[in-house]
Here is the input.
Amino acid sequence: MYNVNSSKAEEFISHEEVLKTLDYAEKNKNNIELINKILEKAKLRKGLNHREASVLLACELEDKNKEIFELAKQIKHEVYGNRIVLFAPLYLSNYCVNGCVYCPYHYQNKHIPRKKLTQEEIIKEVTALEDMGHRRIAIELGEDPVNNPIDYVLESIKTIYSVKHKNGAIRRVNVNIAATTVENYKKLHEADIGTYILFQETYHKESYERLHPKGPKHNYAYHTEAMDRAIEGGIKDVSIGVLFGLELYKYEFAALLMHSEHLEAKFGFGPHAISVPRIRKADDIDPNTFDNGIDDNTFLKIAACIRVANPFAGMIISTRETKECRTRLLDLGISQISGGSKTSVGGYAEKEKEDSSQFDISDTRSLDEIVGWLIENGHIPSFCTSCYRSGRVGADFMKYTKAEQIHNFCTPNALMTLDEYLEDYASQRTKLLGQKLIKREVAKMQPSAIKDALAKNLELITSGSRDLRF
Ligand code: SF4
Ligand code: SF4
Here is the structure.
């Protein structure tokens, strides 16, 4: 029985409700009257429920699909402006006791070398990331109670925050570890993490159990209810996502929105961000063995429909996607991308070995190239980490976002952190492009106290001050 408020995975992601939603969407996919009504609702920026959004996803009418894409662009522009936040993953350990069939770190894979970074090696990795200009990272570890216990994770977070190399510092550590207990989430919260990230992979219980044949991750309910425990443990920013390609995308889409609705109903705030990874080739993994792969156009439609249905959750894509696909996705609502990423353990400080990556990267450009490319495409690359450091998290963060006041913080913070990046890390070419962009963006701002303060801060950055924020 479907119950959005239930604490049980099989009730808030009711299989029956997903199937009814798919049926409803299929029957109404060309129902112009209903689609117009849904689009009118979406224009109010109040979001859509999973049934309404599924009708848009299923829609086959060309002119209505154009409207959906246009609306996604408008919402992206109004809520996020032209800012794109940058981050990098940091792989700490590829030891894992799980048997996920789509991931090369599964315990049966004997081809890849297993590695867990020592604290000294973490310092080297973080130094390399700081030398690139990164400020925000997401740590990634396999699940292994012996090799990667919670104490190792906590010690590593402490080490990461402690590395201050030249003008560099990692100011926000997001954490992607396996589903765990409320007690461990409390510890992560106390360690000052930014967002807790956990991808569902697939919401389809039967497929989930088949794709996760061994290890603690096999337990669908424990995994699906993890975000509830994380929030109970005090973490306010959580990030959800599915791995598109494992199951039918329409099923995943409806269930993903049901998960978001559940968090909103139970805790008063939805996910801070939604990730949309697609399955990629990797050692021991051939994506062609999964027959639910989606093409670029379907992927773009999914991104547009998520943006329209959930205007206030950030949306994240990784370097799994090609430059071409990322360029198109940015306009449709993506607010965060990774740049200059290495997906192997120890990949930043040492040359990455191909056989130890978690997945193949499609966008292999350096961070400097990504920053330059974003600027040339009219975006403001942002290294901002201000909100969680200023206590704007969870429901409080959503309050600002929904009132569309987050702009007041985001643009000045984006410009200041970009300016820091240009001063300390950029190539000459990127620096020139960035400085022109900053001038243009400041000129566009209406006169205000914040504009005056921003102008002063930009001068201070030129003369050596760092970490200024609103
Ligand atoms: Fe382990 Fe995560 Fe890979 Fe599964 S997806 S095998 S849990 S590292
Ligand atoms: Fe993100 Fe807050 Fe910075 Fe805006 S001000 S970019 S919402 S951290």
